[in-house]
Amino acid sequence: MRGYMYILRCADLSHYVGSTSTLEVRLAGHRSGEGSAYTASRLPVAVVYTQEFATVYETFLAERQVKGWSRAKKEALIRGDFAALPELSPSRSRPRAEPHRKPRPEQTEERHKPS
């Protein structure tokens, strides 16, 4: 059975990512305020992206993945800017900045000990 992943832009400009096997029925539910509590409180909503998948399972996996994306990455997908998607992903090969750590008390005493 085929499935559809979709992104809605809500009245407050937030995005809602969902999936369904009956796209038109699900979208009608969102538009009427019965689709989800999230979108019901942010009407009207507009469909800004849809993608069809061969199976409902593939659709579910895509929905979970996109829900975890940043706003910038979702907007690149909506624009069809697929080249930007890798740039907007945290890279495992790129070193991350070290978090700022306070020195332990014994380290500061050692550094400031008069000679």
Which consecutive residue ranges, at least 5 long each, have pLDDT under 50? none
Q: For this structure, what is the CATH class?
A: Alpha Beta
CATH T-level topology: GIY-YIG endonuclease
CATH architectural designation? 3-Layer(aba) Sandwich
Strand composition percent: 15-25%
Principal-axis shape = globular
- Quickly give the structural class: alpha+beta
Domain count: 1
**Rg (C-alpha, Å):** 22 Å
Can you give a write-up of this model?
The termini are far apart. This protein has 6 helices and 3 strands. Strands 2-1-3 form a 3-stranded antiparallel β-sheet, with helices on both faces. It is globular and about 65 Å long. It has one domain: 3-Layer(aba) Sandwich (GIY-YIG endonuclease), CATH 3.40.1440.10. The longest helix has 12 residues, at 56-67. Helix content is 40%, strand content 18%. By secondary structure, it is an alpha+beta fold.
Describe the structure using short key phrases.
GIY-YIG endonuclease, about 120 residues, three-stranded antiparallel β-sheet, alpha+beta
